[in-house]
Amino acid sequence: MLSNEQISDSAPSSGTSPLRIVTEIDENDHDLSWLSASSGSSSANSLFDAPPPATRTTGPSLSFAEHAIASRRPPPIPGLFAPPVLLPVDLADEVMHICSEKYFSSGSVNQVMLFGRALPLEHTADPEPGVQAPGLPPFLTRLLSSLCELLRPELPPAAHALLFPPPGAPLRSRQAILNRYTPGEGITPHVDLLRRFGDGIVGVSFGSTCTMGFRRVADDDEEEGGAVSESAEGESEWNLHLPERSIVVLSGDARYRWTHGIEGRAGDFVRDEQGSEARWIERGTRMSITFRWLLPGADIVGGDA
Ligand SMILES: O=C(O)CCC(=O)C(=O)O
Ligand SMILES: [Fe+2]
Question: How far apart are CA 212 and CA 283, in angstroms?
Fold first, then answer.
């Protein structure tokens, strides 16, 4: 039931695997003028809107300390939330099943972008404001709905409202990006496109554990300059363990002043919250779903944002 499907291969470069992208728009959304999609190479992610884009990697790079030890304890980065709550097993299984069948069955695609259109203001009396986004398939609306409830007691109200705007707030269009990683694959450290995506990003891990690395953006790299963010403990690099069904939220500094990435490795050294001895956890095939807000005017995707 898709009216607009494009597959694009970005040029593989040394040490990276080809990025295979499908962009899909539900044909039930008849007015597609609000959104166009590129058939060019990846424009989904980038460090400060400049090439090179975030690329999917295979094999370790030098970007993170080798054998960095990850922890479930959320790094003290302002705006980063990694609550202990996990997505319910039934919902996670359903989402995995649908995605494997519908998007990743060929094995030749490892990234899919889906879009939900912002509701007009007069529709914001919706019982679940910020959750409904016509154009997104129903299973993603169910996922958003579950995230909205699970995160309510876990996040400060302002962070929750950033992800799930209260009635009356102007609603924007959402992008859901689905990434599938086989063991050994990762994604280079990046800041999600500044001019395309807004504040308030939420991602869920499915199928396998991994480690997400965060690195403070250096002064020189900051588009707008200004003070560099430091974590409360003054560190500039952190590794967060993301088990299956875990949720991570990036907002504020964590979204704008820290890169996030996943080292391409077969597994991760992980220490529990009590600081036990690190143990090696093998990775399996992992899928992630990340929801981001398209900035006003940025819901034309594909060209220079
Ligand atoms: O796989 C993930 O959890 C992260 C994906 C990501 O950072 C992105 O697509 O921009
Ligand atoms: Fe990202």
Answer: 13
Give the nearest ligand 1 atom to 248 CA. Answer: 3
Q: Is 9 helix (H, G, I), strand (E, B) or coil?
A: strand
Ligand 1 atom nearest residue 292's Cα? 10
Scanning the structure block, which residue is given the tokens 């391409």? 264
Residue 58 lies in a domain: no
65 CA → ligand 1 middle, Å: 20
Ligand 2 center to 122 CA (angstroms): 32
17 three-class SS: coil
> Which structural domain, as residue segments, surrounds residue 202?
66-116+131-219+235-294
Q: 241 with 35: CB under 8 angstroms?
A: no
**Nearest residue by C-alpha to atom 3 in ligand 1:** 288
Whether 88 is covered by a domain: the verdict is yes
Look up the ipTM and state it.
0.99
In a domain, 18, yes or no: no
**Can you tell me the distance from the alpha carbon of 259 to that of 220, in angstroms, rounded to the nearest whole number?**
14
pLDDT tens readout for residues 69-123: 999 889 999 999 999 999 999 999 999 999 999 999 998 999 999 998 866 544 4
